Amino acid sequence: MVVDMMQLRRTGMTWQKIGDDAVVLDLDASVYLSLNSTGRLLWERLAEPCTEESLADALVEEYGIDASRAGADVAAFIGDMRTRGLLVE
User: Fold this and answer.
1) Distance (Å) of CA 87 to CA 7, 38, 56, 69, 80
2) For residue 72, what pLDDT is reported?
3) 69 backbone dihedrals φ, ψ, rounded to 5°
4) Residue 82 to residues 19, 31, 74: CA-CA distances in angstroms?
5) Edge-to-edge strand ranges of the sheet holding 21-26
6) pLDDT over 90 at 63, yes or no
7) What's the pLDDT band for 2 if we cut at 50, 70, 90?
8) What is residue 3's predicted lDDT score, i.e. its pLDDT?
9) Region 68-86: what's the mean pLDDT?
10) For 34-49, what is each residue's pLDDT tens digit?
């Protein structure tokens, strides 16, 4: 079984913690993104190579939600980040 690793792209963006949330500036696209605490947790994990499964596990651990909900939330988040070109795989 092949596990797909991904992480945030290392260039062309910057981000800042704001309380429990985060604000991201994609310098290449000149776009600001606002992340709630859940998005920030996933964003911080994506600073290092990881899998969708490990991200879902982090949501289950942090928020006590069930694994299927965590998996769906992670898939939506990752899909958006891929569309925006913010991940490398």
Assistant:
1) 6, 18, 17, 22, 10
2) 97
3) -65, -45
4) 26, 15, 12
5) 13-18, 21-26, 31-35
6) yes
7) low
8) 67
9) 96
10) 999 999 999 999 999 9
Burial class (CB in 10 A: 0-12, 13-18, 19+), 25: middle
CB burial of residue 56 (10 Å; 0-12, 13-18, 19+): buried
pTM over 0.70: yes
Structural contact between residues 62 and 74, judged by C-beta atoms closer than 8 angstroms? no
The token pair at 57 is 């596990």
Q: CB count, 10 Å around CB of 36?
A: 10
For every residue of the chain, which 3-state class applies, written as one string?
CCCCCEEECCCCEEEEEECCEEEEEECCCCEEEEECHHHHHHHHHCCCCECHHHHHHHHHHHHCCCHHHHHHHHHHHHHHHHHCCCEEC
Tokens for 41, please give them.
């947790």
